[in-house]
Amino acid sequence: MPGSKLIDIDLRRPDGVRAQWDTRIAAADGTAHVVYVDAVSGQVARSRVESDQDSGDKRELVALLNSTKISPQVAASTATGRRKGTVSAIGLENSDGGPVRWSVDLMMNDGGKAVLDIDSATGSVVGEQVDLLSGR
After folding, report:
1. Which residues pair with 47 in a beta bridge?
2. pTM confidence score
3. What is d(CA 132, CA 5) in angstroms, rounded to the nearest whole number?
């Protein structure tokens, strides 16, 4: 969708076999769309408009997206620069009243998982959780 911005993206296997990216994007007016993308081919499998948005929801989403200064790509790069791994999800969050941040989920090269919170205005890491494999 031209001019849209990413809200979140998550790698899933809904049928247990084929991986897909579940994404939420927003148009310039704040209308959110859910888009399912085949993770292998990159082709859009299907999409839909989020039906439960009212005008207030759209205004809030536009304000949230406009408050970000760094892209999700920069946030992912920052996260993988700190912890070696593959991004499995990234999403824009502002749930605790703190700074708006990109939450980046990583599958680390050693098999563990990490979630890094990247400040969407400064690009700095503001939170990090690491789950190592048990027994390591």
Report:
1. 35
2. 0.88
3. 33
